[in-house]
Structures are given as structure tokens and as C-alpha cells.
């Protein structure tokens, strides 16, 4: 249990239950998962960067005034990743952090455009993530899969490049399962990305755009109708549209909810005002995720503790939430059954002890 993340309003034994609970993480960004140790190590290697080298100074550096400020800081960390070896190290260390939290399966959102435009060779980039994925599975038992996302604000050039990297048979990595859209939403309309999503879907990828994180429910509708979203990244503003909530519930389209992220980027004012309760009340399939954990001073276990408090969950409720995460994942049926069984076995043993 990470002491600074112990929520005093959640019983300690529930924190301990969460710490050992097998979980799936469906919404977590590659660069946004770099631990303070990795960020400071990379910053020390690149003294021209404005990113602090002192891990303690990172707490202030990772305090955001709004979403635009968050993206600005995020890109300063992206600037630290300059070689394929940086990419490999980051990916492997992210897997280690996930494994420590009993994450059995994670879909990691990667923005290959940001790396290739900064001069990392595309072949070497793919080899680096795949090499780390295989090593992580063999050494930690955590299965990683990739979502390649378009950094929407970088324009259609970035959409074209991301679609090419995701669909070219000579480049497309084995671990790639989905196609996303990230970055700021304001002024970046979802429908313009339809042709790129069409190509990715035709190549067998799942559609998982961010939508409704910093704009209204109409963005979520656009993601559903234009980009054929199978899950929605955040979808926070869906709570403002009862018809949309009913649609999401009826079609079993999961929301990838990241509560602490929404507070850190100031998309939502306080955790108590977070709409997660409305989602559950409307019957929407909610999954719990961490987004950019070290940047937001959180981790997946803490997000489960937050959910336990906001939704008043006990061990059985938390186990059900973890199983919903597995169900909403793009794992195959035997893979889902394996983790679900593990959750049931763990929970039964915990309750019997
Ligand atoms: O890489 C560039 O050069 C570049 C140029 C212009 C714009 C961008 C971006 O907008 C990058 C956005 C970046 O942010 C990632 N991310 C991480 N967390 C979140 C989130 O909560 N909501 C949306 N985006 C997020 C995203 O994956 C992109 O990599 C880049
Ligand atoms: Zn995100």
C-alpha cells in the first residue's frame, strides 16, 4: 500500500483488499505513466529540458491550472523521450508499476506520432514497445496491449501518420488492439477524424476515442456516431444528457472513468461532484482507470479506493467493478475468464479469512 495514497475515509482493510485484487487497466497513457524516478532520470540526461530533475520538485511541476496547462507539461515530458532505448525503458517500467498493483492486463495508450515526429525511427519505436511488452509478460505476468491515439490538436497530419502506423502490416505491432483520439477537445471536432477511424476499424482495431472530458455530451454523441466508439475515454459530460446515458446503458458501451484525473485537470471541481454515481444509477457500464497516474498523484489502486468511497462499495462491490473492467477489455474470452476466476477466488478467500 502506498502510504501517501491511503484515503482516510476508506477503511484500511479495504485498501489492503484493493491492493491484492487482480485488475484490468483500460485507460492509461504511456508517457503519462512515467514514474517520478524515470522522469527525473530522463530530465537529468537532458539538461536542456525544463522538467525538474528532483523527484520532489515534480509534485509542484505536476500541479495543473487547467487542461491546457496539463497538456503543455505532458509534452515537456514527451520531449524527454528521445531514443528507442528511452521508449523501451519507459514501457518496461510502466509494466513493472502495473504488476506491483496486481494489474493482470492493461491497454496502454501510446501516441506514436509524438515520438516519430521527434525523430525516433518508426521501426525502432515499434520494436522497443514490443520488446518491453514481451519481457513484461514473461517477467511480471502482466499482459500489455496497445491503443495508438491521434493527438487531435496536432491536426490531420497526425491522424494520417497514426492511421498509417496502425494499419501498415509491416509496422503494426502485434500488441495493437485499438485506435484512439486524445489531447484537447475544445476546437478539435471529432467528426473530422472519421476517415482515419474507418481505416483503423477496417484493419480490425477497436475504436476508443476520448470524448466528453472537457466538452459537452455532443462530443460523446459524435464519438459514437462518427467514430463508432466501442468505449468512451472519460465521457464525463454524458451525465448532462439523460438520453445519452440511456443509450450508453442500453448498448453496453463502457465509460473509462478516471476520477482523480478529472480533478487534477480541473475538468470536475471536486471528487464529491464527480458524476460516477449518476453513471452507475443510469446502468452505464463503468470501468475504473488511472489515466496519467504519477502526473495526477494517483495509481489504479487509489482510483479503486476513490470509487469505493464515492459508490459506497464493499469487497463484493469492488470485485464486481474489477470484473466489469475485465469484461469491457479487448481480451479474448479465455483471457477474460482467467482473470475473472482469479478475482472470484481472491475475493472468496478474503471474505473467508
Ligand atoms: O506531440 C506533439 O508534437 C503534439 C503536438 C500538438 C498537440 C499534441 C497533443 O495534443 C498531445 C496530447 C497527448 O495527451 C495525451 N493525454 C494524456 N492524458 C490525456 C487525457 O486525459 N486526455 C486527453 N489526452 C491525454 C494524449 O494521449 C496525447 O499523447 C501533441
Ligand atoms: Zn486519457
Automatic annotation (TrEMBL):
Q: Which family does it belong to?
A: Belongs to the metallo-dependent hydrolases superfamily. Adenosine and AMP deaminases family.
CDD domains (alphabetical): ADA
- What EC identifiers does the entry list? 3.5.4.40
A GO biological process held by the record: menaquinone biosynthetic process
According to UniProt, the name of this protein is Aminodeoxyfutalosine deaminase
Domain of life the protein comes from:
Bacteria
Gene Ontology molecular functions = deaminase activity; hydrolase activity, acting on carbon-nitrogen (but not peptide) bonds, in cyclic amidines; metal ion binding
InterPro entries for the chain: A_deaminase_dom, Ado/ade_deaminase, Metal_Hydrolase
Per UniProt, residues of the Adenosine deaminase domain are 22-345
**What catalytic activity does the UniProt entry give for this protein?**
6-amino-6-deoxyfutalosine + H2O + H(+) = futalosine + NH4(+)
Decide whether keyword rRNA-binding is in the record. Answer: no
* UniProtKB keywords: Hydrolase, Menaquinone biosynthesis, Metal-binding, Zinc
> Pathway membership of this protein?
Quinol/quinone metabolism; menaquinone biosynthesis
Provide the cofactor list for this protein: Zn(2+)
This chain's source organism reads Streptomyces parvulus
- Pfam assignment, any one: A_deaminase
